Amino acid sequence: MYKTLMDTVGNTPLVRVQRMVHPDTNSVVLAKLEGNNPAGSVKDRPAVNMIRQAEKRGEIRPGDTLIEATSGNTGIALAMASALMGYRLKLIMPDNMSMERRASMAAYGAELILVSKETGMEGARDLAQSMQASGEGFVLDQFANPDNPMAHYQSTGPEIWHGTSGEITHFVSAMGTTGTIMGTSMYLKEQSEAVQIVGVQPTEGSSIPGIRRWPKEYLPDIYDDRRIDRVIDMSQTLAEETMRAMAVQEGIFAGVSSGGAMAAALQIARETENATIVTIVCDRGDRYLSTNVFSEGKVTYHDAPSA
Predict the structure, then answer these.
(1) Is the dihedral of CA 257, 280, 94, 293 positive or negative?
(2) Do 22 and 166 fall into the same domain?
(3) Same domain flag for 178 and 243
(4) Residue 196 is part of which domain span?
(5) Catalytic residue list
(6) Is 120 annotated as ligand-binding?
């Protein structure tokens, strides 16, 4: 039986980080490569699940219009899933997101609605709700929809538990909508209360695409701080430096939030004996190239030798 594209969501590789871990540590750092999902990020999991579950409840059916506020990866994932499942899609996002993200959404046929950088994700979320109230479509609402974390409870968590043969001691994830960390925590804590769940958020003033330090009034409804054992504040500078090192030293080409999560995982490896640490590499680096966070590297020009 042949697979459909939908069947390729999940079951992403779990690989050992080699050169970035200090040689004196006896801890293991593992990276879950979510960029291997068909639309290129961890958000493929909740995007598919939110649409599937809304269909099962009779809230939507193919041909309807979906609306979502997004900083990028969820929008791309929803655009892919909507194209595959027969929905029209309107995506609302701040205008400072990378051109690659916008182009990817448009390539799948989504309509983009941009708000100002100052309006931000909070304003984008407000606009989505206003559009739904005026009858323009159905908001899936990744920030309040329990089908978001349940996607990770049903897939990401079990994959990590089985991929480490139950030896995981720490799970590290950047926090945006918080769906990944909430659902994965729920599953892992059911297997072993000893597993430490570590969230990563930006320091005050840092801008790291895909993760947020939410004002209390906009904290995602799906977030439950009881599911997190520790929160590490991450600077934009360290996140970007670690992201570049991942590519150069490990061959893992990822985005800035993945760099922040990896930096936190490496910190835990330095602090902890005999740990097995899993971190989420949530997407691929090619959707950040236009932001100039990657070095151009050494480029030389040389004429071909004359005959």
Answers:
(1) positive
(2) yes
(3) yes
(4) 5-36+149-288
(5) 43, 257
(6) no
Annotate 192-221 with b (16+ C-beta within 10 A) or e (fewer): eeebbbbbbbbbeebebbbbbebeeeeebe
- Report residue 179: phi and psi, to 5°: -60, -45
Which pTM does this prediction carry? 0.92
Residues whose CB is less than 8 angstroms from the CB of residue 9 and which lie 6 or more positions away in sequence, other chains included: 37, 38, 44, 45, 48
Q: What is the pLDDT along the chain (307 residues), one digit of tens a residue?
A: 788 999 999 999 999 999 999 888 999 999 999 999 999 999 999 999 999 999 999 999 999 999 999 878 999 999 999 999 999 999 998 888 778 888 999 999 999 999 998 888 888 889 999 999 999 999 999 999 999 999 999 999 999 999 999 999 999 999 999 999 999 999 999 999 999 999 999 998 888 877 888 878 878 999 999 999 999 999 999 999 999 999 999 999 999 999 999 999 999 999 999 999 999 999 999 888 878 788 766 666 777 676 5
Same-domain check for residues 59 and 85 = yes
CATH classification at residue 74: 3.40.50.1100
Q: Are 180 and 282 in contact (CB under 8 A)?
A: yes
> Is 179 among the annotated ligand-binding positions?
yes
Sheet architecture: strand order including 65-69: 111-115, 88-94, 65-69, 138-139
Q: Does the annotation place 180 within a ligand binding site?
A: yes
In a domain, 32, yes or no: yes
